[in-house]
Amino acid sequence: MKTYHLTTPMSDEQISQLRIGDEVYLSGIIYMARDAAHKRLITLLDQGKSLPVNLQGQVVFYGGPGPTKPDHVIGVVAPTSSYRMDPYTPKLFEYGVKAAIGKGNRAKEIRQACIDFNAVSFSAIGGISATLFACIRKADVVAYEDLKTEAIQRLEIDNFPLLVTNDTRGGDLYDQEVEKYRKLLNA
Fold this sequence. Notes:
Elements: E1 3-7, H1 12-17, E2 23-32, H2 35-46, E3 59-61, E4 63-65, E5 77-79, H3 89-95, E6 99-102, H4 108-117, E7 120-123, H5 129-134, E8 136-143, E9 152-166, H6 173-186
Parallel strand pairs: 1-2, 2-3, 3-6, 6-7
Antiparallel strand pairs: 2-9, 4-5, 7-9, 8-9
């Protein structure tokens, strides 16, 4: 396992070097979107229409903010369970999204999409919302304001802590670790 300090947008070369278990401290711009926004994005792609935000080469964060307090750029954010976006992710990777951030394991179709479209899936550790919040320097709603907390937001981040959980070679950190502990229990 290696540690990387990367800045968005990420190049194909940077994506290709990442392996499951690697730590990444990500800086730059990411786009926060959840279920309702993903559904709208896929509908547009299925219709051959342009997206309201160009996500090619970008990173999408499956998260949602809490209420914003005075003098803060955004409310505390927490990653959403990645599996909820599994029906949409392969199409977005095909479109050109390079990485997705959520929490928890992904479907096998995501592993294949990472291989096919040179993309990765990151996990933001649940329970560290205050740490993630502290990494956000700026937040702006850029699409679907009517969705309120599920609107697409452009986040400017600095050293956002992540783990690579699915890589471009089909690796799956969750499967690997579960199998490792299963073997230990059966030994």
